[in-house]
Each structure stands twice: as structure tokens, then as C-alpha cells.
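Sample entry (239 residues):
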Amino acid sequence: PLTFLTVEAWGFMQLGARQYSNRTKPFPHRWAVMFLIAVGFWNFLGAGVFGFLINLPIVSYFEIGTALTANHAHASMMGVYGMLAIAFAVFGLRYLLPENKWPEKGLKFSFWTLNIGLLWMSFISLLPLGIAQLYKSVGEGYYEARSFAFIHDGASAVMGWMRMPGDVIFLVGIIPLIKLALLALKEIFSKNAKETVLELPEPPLYEVVEDARIAEFAGAKAAEELPEQTSPYRSDRRG
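Predicted structure, serialized as C-alpha cells:
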């Protein structure tokens, strides 16, 4: 279901893009929706797939506390709750910062570097190291799989150090978010700050219809489609 919600989020963004097809300005909440899409992806992979890999009773006996646990923790914690927090922040700050100060390219850079860095951590380092520890735990024992000698052995040490490029890519992706937070604080404490700086699109994604127009339309449709009927429970009240 969460994966289908991700598809729905992508469809919503395409709807917004079509509304802005004849405009010079891009869809204002593109990167907020993209981070929400990342939430669905990591929820399926990090919490779902990686979670089942460690939480089934038999395998959990052999691998709890190994790199497979760290792999699940990284992918589900940062991939789900971290991306969700960023999405909410980007969505809210879009209404605070002026158009000429909005870091569109910076958010694009941050989105891809954060996700690529997290993927690198999982698939290049933590996942293969965890599988090696699991093999060691089943074959020789849990203590040997978590021993200092095994973790700092040749192949295991290399897999541990292979995580560094992903860490660097991930940390670089945080820089545009820090810049966005500083711009928001500056705008909040600015003397010339306005109540809102994001104008509603014309036409908006959803048109707001007044109650009077709704009642008029409903009455007209009822008069066209439904013949006048009498009912024993109907009474005319005047006064």
C-alpha cells in the first residue's frame, strides 16, 4: 500500500506540472513531493525488505546486532523518517521564502546526493558486511561473527571502509538544507518579511467554489433530472 501511495504522489506532481505547463515558473512543491516519494521507496526497501531480512525469528537469532541490523536501521530511520521530515520542512518553507531566494537547484542536488549516499551505505558496505557476518555466525558462532578480529579482518575491513564514499556524498547533500534553514531564519527575522510570499497558482490545482454557487448548481441539476414528486411525509410550512 505504501508503494501505491508513492505512485499516487508521483501522479499528483504530474498534475501540478501540467497546471504549470504554460508558465515560466516550475511546480512550486516539486521537491517536497520528491522527498515524499523517497519516503515510499525507503519504506518498501529499508523498513520492508531489510526489516524482514532481520526480524524473522530464526535468522534474528543468528544476526541481531550485526551490520544487517545497522543496514535496516540506516535505511528505515533516515530513509523514512528523515526524508519525511525534510519533505515537511521543504513544503512549509516554500511559503516563507521569496521566489528569487528559493534554492531549486540546491534542493535537487540535496535530494539526489542524500538518496545516492544512503544507497551506497546500504548496498556497498552494510549489506555485504552483514551477510558475511551472518555466514560466519551460522557456521562458527555468533561470538565469532561479532569479534574484533573478524570485523577488522581483510575483507570485512575493506567493506567497512567502502562505506566512506557514501558517507561523504550524504554529508555533502546536507549543505543545501543547511543553507535553506539559514535563509528561512533570515527571512523570519527580516524587518521586511511579508505574511506570505508564495502566490496561489492561477488556476490552482483545486478550484474553490462558493456555497451559493454549489447550491445554485445543485438546484438546477435537481430541477432538470428529478421530476416533482409528492410524498405523504411532505408538508408545506409557511411563516
